Each structure stands twice: as structure tokens, then as C-alpha cells.
Amino acid sequence: MKSMFVWIEGYLNKARRIFVAGFTLIFLLFITFSLLGGIAGAFSGDEEIDTKDKILYLELAGVVVDQPQSGPSDPVSIILAGDSQPNVYAIRDILRLLDAVANDTNLKAVYLDVDNLSMGGQVFSLAIADAVKKIVDNDIRVIAYTDGLVTSDYLVASQATELYLNTNSYSGIMPSGFSRKREYMQEFYNNVKIDYEIFTAGDFKSGPEPYTRNDMSENDKIAWNAFANPLWDTYKQKMEAGRNLKPGTIQSYGDNFDILAKDEKGDFPKVALNLGLVDGLMKHEEIRDYMIGEFGSEDKDKDKWPEGVSYDDYLSTLDSSFDDEAEDIIAIINVEGVIMTGQESQGTAGSDSIVDKIYKAKNDKNVKALILRVNSGGGDVYASELILNALDDFKSTDRKVYTSMGNVAASGGVWVTTNSTEIWAEENTLTGSIGVYSIVPTLGRALDWAGINVDGVSSTKMGEWDPSEPMPDYMKDLFQSNVDGIYETFVSQVANNRDMEYEEVLKIAGGRIWAGNKAQELGLVDKLGTLNDVIAHVAESNELDSYKVKYYKRDLEPWEVFFEISKNVNLDIPFSSTRKLIYKELNAFDQLVQQNGQLKPISYCSECDLLN
Questions:
Q1: In this structure, are strands 195-201 and 436-442 parallel, antiparallel, or unpaired?
Q2: Helix, coil or strand: residue 537
Q3: Which of 388, 375, 369 has the alpha carbon at shortest distance from 331?
Q4: Is the dihedral of CA 435, 440, 441, 444 positive or negative?
Q5: Catalytic positions, please?
Q6: How many CA atoms lie within 13 A of 435 on its CB side?
């Protein structure tokens, strides 16, 4: 019997060694081939790519952001995740490519598919749509195909020369506009005997409303409609102009889609065709045959699409927009996502990472000015203040800080701009929301119901109260005074930066959101323009005849460098994983509120979530 156990032990040890050795071999082979492929890809990027008489295939699947971010992660988990990492596109790359295409007479046409592209926000969607329109206006044919589109996707596709919809599409074209829905849970929390103590500064600061109400407040409706309705009008006008539709067609469709669909027995593609939202209906095989019939195919395979160039290949042919040999630098540092302490990751703007970048720019004598590119609805007040302090330190070297606002620069996203020399926004930037709140849950009633009594002693009054007990009045007064004090500081900083009276800012603060053009009228913004407009202005103001632009990024760990190199290997990443990234960004607010149980004041714009 003993010899049998010895044999089993030996067998298991041998099997374990074989398994470990096999896994190690596979891992090393993966690294080796990835590095070789990456290095080869890096060198192959220098090769000239011929676009003569070819189709540019813009089939983008992923998420559009200002600056792709990298955060601390476990390298093993990334390897195991494999293709679940979604594509992330920098908006500047997309616009640079589209601008080049508009002047490329070599291309036969552009094939556009944005079904699986999350546009990232209203400013990005409008910019991409305008860039596609510019290509069409320059007599370059753009053929778009879709399995079904919603508001922002349709805005872009509607600018194409031709737009075709899958005959078998389930949803068709659904430009439903913008909505904002939240779960209001006051009654629920009352039923489960959990109380939320809410402390706010700002009549329009609606972040805590899901905990204190069972419906949307009138102030929240007023602020939301004042921003969303003009934006929706802009979308409709561009859609209708792109498709040569009568004014009012899109709104009428949105208000009567059920009746129109019923008349066609639920056939949404036919409804879209009847309204002129698309040029025709085609199955996947039919659009392929149409492209072959229009542009030919040199391949003997009849199912082969016309020869073309991919987004990545075309982008690799483009030269930098700036002088890479120049010594003078304009630094760009991104604040993108929910502002929190710690390191950055996709969906969060980690103050530690951002502060580190600011100090790197400060210590580089070639940096002549800094542009803070903000695409954030705010977050942790303390983290925002850390970023602001670092910017003050940069300005102490007699160099200027400029702000460029993207889709959203609200609440804490405004806070970090309050020492900028100039603040720029885009016409449809969502900004404002100057307000503060704190949310403190207490479990006193729930524990009483469960028969649990909390008792004990404390050395001081400061340590007496526990969140498992109802909050006493002196603690409520303390929290409210803290929030009021932070709000007063916030308003004062905006007033000082904008050269406005405190009372003047107070009238337009209160947590209310504003569009960029309205914010300029109110004095919260200096000028309207894109990031490129800001760069050009900074160069002119600082008398930089020759300069380059540097986007500061977090320093990568050695293993991260390997993954960056391996990205040059041709790997197809499915869109399904994009949803994970979107959920991660949406869940960042929950991380902000929880903060490991710490009670922190929040300057975050819950009103900034555009749903379409």
C-alpha cells in the first residue's frame, strides 16, 4: 500500500513539472513571437503604403477617447484576458486621418462602418460627422453600411454620400435623441430602513436626488432640457441636411416611430427607406457585391472585397502635424474620467498620475506652455485640489496654463481649471455644475429593526458617533458646514479666475449645467474652439515659430512596454468587449462614492450622462 502512494506521489509530481514546464514554454513562445511581431510591425510602419485606386475601409470597433490611458494592472490577467481588451481610439488620430482623406485624390472611395464605435460624447460625434461631410464635399465618395444605428452613430453615417441598411436589421435606424433616466430610490431605502444623510451646496446639484426623491426634480428637468434640446436641434439639422430631408423629418419619426412601424408590420428597415433615412436595403452579401460591381476586384475569389487600406495602415502613412525636430514644446496633459486620488486608468483621472505629469512638464525647460485638456464630470474634491496645486507650481515658473474643454468639463472638471490663463470650450461642451455634495448612509433604523444595539464609550465627542447609529445634529451641522465651506471656496476660485464678482458667479453656479456657448456668454469661458484651435493660439501667444506638441503619459512598467510593443501584431479584437470598458467608466462614480468607507465631499456632475 505504501509503495502505491509513493508511486502516486511521484506521478503527480512528474505531472506537475510537465504542466509547469509546458505553461512556461507557451508563455515564453507568446512573448517571443509577440516581441518579434511587434518589432517587425514597428519597422514596417516606415514602409510606404500605396493608396492609389484603393478603398479606405473605416471599420472602427471600440471607444473614442481624448487620450488612451493605461493604469496599473496585473500582467497575468491581461494575458488571460486576451482579446477582451477593447480598441481605444484617440479622437485626434481619427480627425487627423479624416482631414487627410478629404485631400487624398488617390483613393477611389471610403467604406464607412460605425456600428461598433462608441463615439465618446457629443463633441466627438459632431466633429467626426463634420469631418465626413468635408470628405463628401470634396467629391470623394463615402459609402456607409450598417446593421442598425442610434443617434450619434446615425449622425456620422448620415453625412456619407450613400447609406445602406441591412435588409434583415432588427432595429433599423433609431435617432431617438437624448434622454436621461435614473432610478429614484427614496421609498426603497425607507422600506429597508437605510437612511442617507445628504449635504448639498447648490439648488441644481442633483447628484444626491436618487437617494432623496422618488422622481426627477423640476430644477433638474429645467437644466437638462436647457442643455439637451439645443444639442438635439443641432443633431437633427445635420442629419436632415446630410440626407436631404425636409426639416422636421427626424423629430416626426422619433415621435411617431411606433405608428410608422405598425403600418409596415414592424419592418423598421422599410420605414427607414420610406423616410429617406437610407438609400437602400442590402444584405451583407449584397453590399459586398455592390462594392465589387462599383470598384472591381483583382482577386479571383468572387467573394473578395475590392482592394483597400485599413484605418491603422492609412494612419501610419501620415506625418506629424507639428515639427518633431523643434526644441520648443507645448505640453498637453489630459484630465479624462472621474477625478480620484491614485493612478489613472480608463474611466478615471488619477490625481497621482496627473500631478506627476505636470511636474515632468515643469522640469522640462523646453516646455513653453501647458494645455490642460479636460474631459471630466469631476469627482473627489481633494484630488481636484491636488491637481490645481501642481498647476499653480507650474505657473510659478512664469509659464502659462491654458484649458481646452472636451465633451464634458463640469463640477470638479471646472475646479481644476480655475487657475488657467485662458479657458476654451467647444460650442456643445457640457460645463458648469459648480456645486458640492456629500452622501452619508446610516444604518440605525435597520439595526434597530434587526434587534442590534450599538453601544460603547469614546475618549472624545469627536469619536462618539458611528455610521451604524442615527446621525446627531452636531454631526449634521459639521458636514453641512464643510460642504458650504468647499462651495464658497469653489465659487471664489471661479470668481477670481474669471475676474467676476462673487455674487455674479453665485447666480450662475448652484450646480447648474451649461453648454459651452452659453458658458462663454456668462463669462465662465474665454473663447470657443477645438483643441487644435487652442494649440494654434498658444503657439501664437507665446511667439513659437517652430514647436512640437507632447502628450504626457504615465511611465510604463517594463512589462507594460512589452505589451505596447506587442500591439503592433495584427490581432482582431471583437467589439463585444467594448461594453466592458463602457461599464467600467460608468461604474467609476460608484468607486468615487464608496472610497473605502471614507466620507469625502464630492464635486461631480451626475447630470452629465448623455444617453442616446
A1: antiparallel
A2: helix
A3: 369
A4: negative
A5: 205, 411
A6: 26
Average pLDDT score over the chain: 86
By residue count, the chain amounts to 612
Whether pTM exceeds 0.90: no
548 in Cβ contact with 323 (< 8 Å): yes
CB count, 10 Å around CB of 248? 10
Other residues' Cβ atoms within 10 Å of the Cβ of residue 258: 9
Task: Say which DSSP state 606 is in.
Answer: G
Name 447's Cβ contacts closer than 8 Å, sequence gap at least 6: 453, 454, 468
Asked if residues 232 and 240 have their Cβ atoms less than 8 Å apart, the reply is no
**Residue 380 and residue 409: Cα distance in Å, rounded?**
14
Contacts of 158 (CB under 8 A, 6+ apart): 129, 238, 239, 242, 243, 277
- The span from the CA of 448 to the CA of 577, in Å, is 44
pLDDT of res. 344: 87
> Cα–chain-centroid distance for residue 514?
19
CA distances from 49 to 206, 310, 315, 319, 604 (A): 52, 11, 10, 13, 46
Quickly count: other Cβ atoms within 10 Å of residue 370's Cβ: 26
Burial class (CB in 10 A: 0-12, 13-18, 19+), 480: middle
Rg (CA), the chain: 28
List the one residue out of 602, 91, 69, 77 whose CA is nearest residue 380: 602
Q: Above 60 in pLDDT, residue 449? A: yes
Q: 119-172: per-residue pLDDT in tens?
A: 989 999 999 999 999 999 999 999 999 999 999 999 999 999 999 999 999 989
Domains of the chain listed by start with CATH number: 55-175+246-316 (3.90.226.10), 329-568 (3.90.226.10)
End-to-end Cα spacing for the chain = 70
- Sign of the alpha-carbon dihedral angle for 512, 517, 523, 528: positive
